[in-house]
Design goal:
Chain A: The chain crosses the membrane at residues 41-60. The complex is a heterodimer of chains A (63) and B (471). Chain A is an all-alpha fold. Chain A has one domain. Helix content of chain A is 62%, strand content 0%. The longest helix of chain A is centred in the last third of the chain and has 25 residues, at 38-62. Chain B has 471 residues and is mainly α. Chain B has one domain (31-367): Hydantoin permease, CATH 1.10.4160. The chains are: A mainly alpha (63), B mainly alpha (471).
């Protein structure tokens, strides 16, 4: 779906515009559209790094 | 009465349009189950079996955990956060990175190889599983590379196409049953293995086809699993697109993809070492006897169908954004057309299926740099800001038009990462070079690609005021 489609007023373009207008409305609330917090990303990498370092430590210890 | 839906690009679920709040069907639990259903699929058994080619049980456990946790942690932040936030089809959203023409090149060249390759492998595995059932129950004598396997593979493709026609809702409902069933299958295989063998037997079992150098074997096993982790890149964005919160988009990757894949691969590793074969379809009847083995093989077949559907769903959505020729094409016709090359490949079961691990390494050469570039672009360079209307704009006035629709910085970064990968590890011969045994190939490829993309964007793209990075 692209705005620059050959037919300028097709069904898909109208639907795209409708959706973009809804999303652009400042009163539109969608929890999924909030930015993930830096803290949550930090926790994500902390958890995965802990798993990684734990596995490496156990592998090194086993050898 | 509401008009009947036309399954063209006008429907967000079957097209590329941004999903609205009421269309986001996946909560944390739903996304976790879908991810479990995907990760624990029979490709996890194949990966575990491939790991057993080069390492034994102890090294294999650590290689599986290390490779998957690195791959999944980077892949998830590179693609799931952005698609979850904007609800736009993954490859449409990636126009912001590669440009509208650039993403076409990426989809046409790279995704086609990936989607067709994986689907062919899984459909051939379906063929081998069901032919095993027929040999056991029906007294047939279908060899593992016979034409019978090909016809059964084509049957798998046909069923997958019918399911795909129904869209993501069908996959969601199917995975609610198949996901838990695959967990039961995993624990069942583990139970059968350990009822026949002790841990000592498995731990002491030799790898099936190792190289001489033990450290090299370990890093090749890690590399296979890095490839598995990074290899989720083209699949998961179009699922997290339907999640209701950022948390539901991110964390199920750890619970579903990482943990479930590790479990499935460990089952594959132990079974391969116990039974001396890396092919999961050869394990079930020797392990469980006729009844249990046949039941397990039938379930393996069903599980492969859900995996094929998931891969192709993403691929078809990617084709949707390829331009006006595809956007108005009926969903059933588009999905059917993309299955044609899979059918052709299914006529060469031995060449494809038994070289699975090489295919895996080749995909890592592409997906590790891709993960690095897209993570750097969205999280660091754009700080989570994308101009949504410009993502859908093919015109030269779009922020993402770059130069004639291509962002050379992103492609140069991809090429740089791919060259680093190839310099360290040849996916075809599995020959390792330089510091591969210390750092693998995927991790340096990912990092180099990310740094290159950052540097080129700062010095070339942003000064030219292209790419909308100041938005």
């Amino acid at each position: 779906m692209t705005i620059a489609s050959e037919s300028p007023d097709n069904e898909m373009r109208r639907e795209l515009n409708r959706r973009l207008n809804i999303i652009a409305d400042p009163s539109y609330m969608d929890p999924a559209r909030t930015d993930i917090s830096g803290r949550e990303l930090g926790i994500w990498f902390a958890v995965t790094a802990t798993i990684l370092l734990g596995a490496i430590a156990m592998w090194v210890g086993g050898n | 009465m509401a008009p009947a839906p036309k399954f063209t690009g006008a429907s967000a679920a079957f097209g590329t349009l941004p999903v609205l709040k009421e269309e986001r069907e996946l909560g944390f639990l739903d996304n976790s189950w879908i991810n479990i259903g995907l990760a624990i699929a029979t490709w996890a058994f194949l990966l575990g079996g491939s790991t057993a080619l080069v390492v034994g049980a102890r090294d294999g456990i650590y290689a599986i955990i290390i490779g998957n946790v690195i791959g999944v942690s980077i892949m998830a932040v590179s693609v799931c956060i952005s698609t979850g936030k904007f609800g736009i089809e993954q490859f449409t959203l990636m126009r912001s990175v590669f440009g509208p023409l650039g993403i076409l090149i990426l989809v046409g060249f790279f995704l086609a190889i990936y989607g067709v390759g994986w689907s062919a492998i899984l459909s051939i595995m379906f063929g081998r599983a069901i032919s095993g059932v027929m040999n056991q129950v029906g007294g047939t004598n279908i060899g593992e590379n016979d034409l019978g396997v090909t016809f059964l593979a084509i049957l798998a493709i046909t069923i997958s196409w019918l399911l795909l026609w129904k869209g993501p809702t069908a996959v969601k409902w199917l995975n609610r049953f198949v996901g838990p069933g695959k967990l039961i299958l995993c624990f069942g295989i583990l139970f059968l293995i350990f009822s026949h063998k002790s841990w000592g037997d498995i731990a002491n079992a030799a790898p099936l086809a190792p190289f001489d150098d033990r450290r090299l074997n370990f890093m090749i096993a890690v590399e296979f699993n890095l490839a598995a982790g990074f290899g989720w890149w083209p699949v998961l964005g179009n699922i997290s697109r339907f999640t209701r919160t950022p948390r539901a988009a991110l964390w199920p990757n750890l619970i579903g993809i990482f943990a479930a894949a590790v479990l499935g691969e460990l089952v594959g590793l132990f079974a391969a070492l116990s039974l001396g074969s890396h092919d999961p379809t050869a394990w079930m009847i020797p392990l469980g006897g006729a009844f249990v083995g046949v039941t397990a093989l039938l379930f393996v077949g069903l599980a492969n169908i859900t995996a094929i559907v998931s891969i192709f769903y993403g691929m078809c959505l990617a084709m949707r954004q390829a331009g006006r020729y595809f956007e108005a094409m009926p969903w059933g016709l588009l999905t059917g057309a993309l299955f044609v090359p899979v059918i052709v490949i299914a006529f060469f079961p031995g060449q494809i299926y038994d070289n699975f691990f090489k295919f895996l390494a080749w995909t890592a050469l592409g997906f590790a740099p891709l993960s690095g570039v897209t993570a750097m672009d969205y999280l660091v360079l754009r700080r989570g800001r994308i101009k949504q209307c410009d993502v859908f704009n093919d015109g030269a006035d779009s922020d993402y038009a770059y130069w004639r629709g291509i962002n050379p910085a992103a492609f140069l970064a991809l090429a740089g990462g791919g060259l680093v990968y190839y310099a360290l590890f040849d996916p075809q011969s599995l020959a390792a070079h330089g510091p591969f045994i210390w750092v693998s190939a995927s991790v340096p490829a990912c990092i180099v690609a990310a740094i290159l993309h950052y540097g080129l964007t700062r010095t070339m793209v942003m000064p030219a005021r292209r790419g909308g990075y100041e938005y």
